[in-house]
Design brief:
The chain contains eight helices and six strands. By secondary structure, the protein is an alpha+beta fold. It has one domain: NADH Oxidase (3-Layer(aba) Sandwich), CATH 3.40.109.
Amino acid sequence: MSDPKPEFLPLDFQVVGKSEQKSRADEFFELLNRRRTVRDYSDREVPIGLIERAVATAGTAPSGANMQPWRFVVVKDPEIKHKIRAAAEKEEYESYHGRMSEKWLRRLAVLGTDENKPFLEIAPYLIVVFRITSIVEDGETEPTYYSQESVGIAVGLLLAALHNVGLATLTHTPSPMKFLQEILGRPKNEVPFVIIPVGYPSEDAMLPDIRRKNLDDIMEVV
């Protein structure tokens, strides 16, 4: 089989003036700086169109060899959410009561978390993100390239897109997560990456009193 030849299109790129660049940068930072991980949800309905647009935005992420190795399974059915919660809490109980080191538990203590995960049923949607590890083409199996990095970038865009429309999110990663393949009927080449509850915060939602690092702590210019 011969290698495909590259085809190119003109770049559609908008040049932004310096003053607008600055205002856009400031506005975007202020928007995302208000984003917080939320564990207290309302069952208030969320239009599915907002979820679809956010997932479409996540799908614009760059990926290794343009293989786009992601699958977003949106769970709304209460029975399926209940199964996911039960399986996740089982794994989380094992983690909090034996798997996690003392140092890890000490890091989690300030967040006030435990094995109980009611948000997995209360939030109107769970977006379960899978990483596609391989594809079959012309009868041959081929791995996806840089799939871990690619899916991580896509999830970042997804979180930003959901926050942009005023929805709360949480990145939940019970370990191991093989139960998600079984409950959602996904093939072996789709590996669970993260569960993202999506919805509106409850009226009495509380947050841990923690701070983000300053710019000087995370950036160096050399």
